[in-house]
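Ticket #4471: structure export looks truncated?
Reporter: QA, pipeline team
Priority: medium

Steps to reproduce: submit the single chain below to the structure queue and open the exported record.
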Amino acid sequence: MLAASLAAVLAFLAWQHFYPVVAGDGWSYRVYVAEIPMVSALARDEQGTLYLSQEMGAGRGAVFTLDATGRRELALGGLSRPDGLAPFDGGIAVSQEEGEQPVFWLFAGRREVLFRGHNIEGLASHGNQLYAIEDRVGGGRLLRYDRLTKEVAVLREGLREGEGVAVCPSGELFYAEKGRQWVKRWRANGNDDVVLDALNAPGFVACNEDGLWITEDATHRARLLLLDPTGTVHTVLSHLRSAQTLLVVDRDRLLLAEQGRDRILEIRRQPAGAR
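Actual output as written to the record:
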């Protein structure tokens, strides 16, 4: 009986590990680039250069550029868990999640320290402002850095494993707390409202005209979700492993870092009526 129960548990774990990613109705995917250990963040600068990060700690992390052939070139090394990238002021902002670390601005082969924080994970930019969120248990903050004044404002405190932050074209601000399994809309009056909860380790969030995109940073059965402007939730991909950053290339093409399988997926919207 014990052997049968153990075999059933092992079979279930194997099923979770090897079950392929499933695309929702109207979507397809393919492997864009494989064999990138600890791939985490993705971003493009104003010139269209694609950046990715490898989230290794203790100064072993790095940011690379990636060309159309899949060739990588080191852009910035010596980092400690680089987990956030965002286009900012013509270059790329880079966060580090391991302890107290600076947020860097990478431009034309040089780097500049913008500000410092504790376990900063997600980044998002909007004009001259850069938003950052700290992945700490109970003590995380939502921050806003102003490029013109060089000042850092604390927008929220006491966050539990804050991972993702996003700014919509309208200027609305959203953030994800993995420890509370929800995504919230930030309100200037302090009454932030929950827009989606009961999630499976929500991590990265992004916003465009399609709505709010959420990835789940769970090791098994994670999803890529889209909360559209009507409030309907769409499952774009399921059975992911540790989904990280989603990069919206254009309305019909997206890139997703799937850290649990060391790869980047390319996701495409299918024409109406296609199978």
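Status: closed, not a bug. The export was complete when the record was re-opened. Leaving a note from the reviewer for reference: The longest strand covers residues 110-118.
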